[in-house]
Design the sequence.
């Protein structure tokens, strides 16, 4: 068996296409002859972009009326699959909405789901998963019938345009959802950030427990700004409430692949490493010489971040 | 709401960081023969459930868990925090269950408790599939709000701050519902000595797959629609230069950044 047709669920925030969608479309095109995209909200405004990455059709479930994407998108796809016009595989992003849609869809059409995929075999049938903090690669595949649900981590594939024409847009009806669709978004809040986005920045400077207190996170922000990078964080200080969740790098946070990742006061729990170990260069500053982060660092500085960072910031400021 | 019965799904996982985990070479299942503990990610849901029941002025927290070998050590921790009772599904037929089968088992067990609210973590710390909360909601025909960083109840409605890529959405959902909470949503209490003693006597109802009206063949390895085909070591990243700071280490960082042309 091979994958002839793949549907890619295009994740978006507001009306912008999430960059991971282009990564998934690119990979879908490499493993399957036919690629179509499914989304919500306005589709005509993004049909050209989606087509440029190889999807011939773009289906939208339309305006969600304040509802969450999960139930509506899953129900609409489930109808098509149950009606016999489903694809061989469905690709979704390992994002908040991607996981919601995958979970709903999986239960609705009774098919399994594989999550945290970081690579696919050439035929698209075997998945790769980085486990135990990325020290081992596990291979898996679907064994049953029905489209496999592939939930893929961002940054697993490089996006490449195909030069395709605008995708043909149509609207898919959403069946009556009942109680599963009862959640309503009342308001949306954007946390203001300056500089590049965390998952797109060439330089990421992240802070952890070793900073000692929430106020010292300013050192991370200052250094990131000087290097035109983005500030990140370990789960420990996000859980402690020092910085918002949107800063978190790791298994439950963002995956980053910058030119250089500077880990400050981060010991290197497996949960963190899986989100940053693909950085081209890793610099770590930590008091504990035994910290696991040093085992994957290109340059490791054994020292107190509260001493090293101010010196580094001052030296960079002097260079102008 | 005068009364709030909360089910909290909890997982009992091997103690220690993932780097100490092992997979069974033939079954590729995670080896769980050592001590199992309450997944720390689940302690937030337990705390949240206890707080919501207290605020409602009545009701209780029921734990629902699936684990091999009648394991209860993690459940006892959550009972010691204040949960009233637990339902444990333990059955050799469950070995090798995928996420969907697990959700079917948990959903069937949850139903028995007739909860007003179901709380879960966003994902477990050992398997981190992250789809089970929504799969449970779909199976039970309930709404779900995932990745919640704040939960407040007013009447029979819950208001949640749901994490988004850029910030958060405020989401309202009627009860009953499934809510998955992020770590840090509340500060989990430490079990008191009194709590630990009381936990020993709290009821843990142990069930088999057949008690839930499910077929053995629909769960475990037999019911899984996916299989592990192999495990291999990832390409290892080598440790590089290590410098001990004696006041000049920042210059090594500057040189390194110059060399890779970041500055």
Sequence:
């Amino acid at each position: 068996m091979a994958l002839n047709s793949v549907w890619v669920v295009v994740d978006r925030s507001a009306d912008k296409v999430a960059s991971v969608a282009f990564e998934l479309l690119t990979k879908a095109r490499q493993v399957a002859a036919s690629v179509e995209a499914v989304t919500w909200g306005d589709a005509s405004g993004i049909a050209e972009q989606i087509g440029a990455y190889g999807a011939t059709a773009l289906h939208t479930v339309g305006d969600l009326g304040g509802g969450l994407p999960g139930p509506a998108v899953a129900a609409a796809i489930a109808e098509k699959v149950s009606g016999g016009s489903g694809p061989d595989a469905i690709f979704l992003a390992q994002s908040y909405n991607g996981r919601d849609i995958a979970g709903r869809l999986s239960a609705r059409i009774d098919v399994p789901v594989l999550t945290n995929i970081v690579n696919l075999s050439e035929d698209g049938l075997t998945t790769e998963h980085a486990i135990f903090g990325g020290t081992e690669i596990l291979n898996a595949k679907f064994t049953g019938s029905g489209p496999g649900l592939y939930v893929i981590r961002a940054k697993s594939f490089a996006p490449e345009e195909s030069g395709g024409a605008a995708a043909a847009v149509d609207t898919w009806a959403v069946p009556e959802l009942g109680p599963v669709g009862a959640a309503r978004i009342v308001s949306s809040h954007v946390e203001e950030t300056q500089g590049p986005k965390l998952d797109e920045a060439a330089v990421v400077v992240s802070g952890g427990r070793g900073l000692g207190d929430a106020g010292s996170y300013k050192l991370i922000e200052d250094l990131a700004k000087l290097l035109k990078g983005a500030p990140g964080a370990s789960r420990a200080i996000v859980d402690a409430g020092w910085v918002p969740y949107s800063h978190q790098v790791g298994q439950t946070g963002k995956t980053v692949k910058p030119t250089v990742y500077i880990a400050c006061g981060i010991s290197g729990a497996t949960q963190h490493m899986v989100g940053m170990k693909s950085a081209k260069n890793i610099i770590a500053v930590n008091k504990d010489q035994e910290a696991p982060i040093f085992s994957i660092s290109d340059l490791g500085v054994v020292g107190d971040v509260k001493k090293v960072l101010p010196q580094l910031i001052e030296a960079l400021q002097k260079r102008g | 709401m005068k009364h709030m019965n909360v089910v909290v799904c909890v997982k009992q996982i091997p103690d220690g960081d993932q780097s100490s985990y092992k997979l069974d070479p033939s079954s590729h299942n995670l080896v769980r023969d050592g001590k199992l503990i309450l997944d720390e990610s689940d302690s937030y849901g337990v705390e949240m459930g206890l707080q919501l029941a207290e605020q409602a002025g009545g009701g209780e927290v029921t734990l629902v868990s699936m684990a091999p070998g009648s394991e209860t050590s993690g459940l006892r921790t959550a009972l010691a925090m204040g949960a009233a009772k637990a339902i444990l599904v333990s059955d050799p037929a469950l070995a090798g269950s995928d996420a969907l089968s697990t959700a079917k088992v948990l959903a069937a067990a949850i139903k028995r408790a007739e909860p007003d609210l179901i709380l879960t973590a966003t994902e477990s710390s050992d398997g981190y599939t992250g789809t089970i909360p929504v799969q449970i909601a779909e199976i039970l025909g309930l709404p779900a709000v995932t990745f919640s960083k704040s939960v407040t109840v007013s009447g029979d409605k819950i208001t949640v701050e749901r994490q988004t890529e850029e910030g958060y959405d405020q989401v309202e959902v009627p009860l009953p519902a499934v809510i998955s909470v992020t770590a840090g949503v509340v500060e989990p209490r430490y079990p008191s000595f009194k709590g630990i003693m009381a936990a020993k006597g709290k009821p843990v109802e142990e069930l088999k797959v057949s008690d839930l009206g499910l077929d053995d063949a629909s769960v475990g390895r037999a019911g899984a629609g996916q299989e592990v085909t192999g495990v291999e070591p990832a390409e290892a990243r080598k440790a590089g230069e290590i410098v001990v700071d004696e006041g000049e280490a920042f210059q090594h960082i500057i040189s390194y950044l110059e060399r890779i042309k970041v500055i």
Remarks:
- The mean pLDDT of chain A is 94.
- Chain A touches chain B through 102 residues (CB under 8 Å).
- Residues 16 and 46 of chain A are 8 Å apart (CA to CA).
- Residues 305-319 of chain A form the longest helix (15 residues).
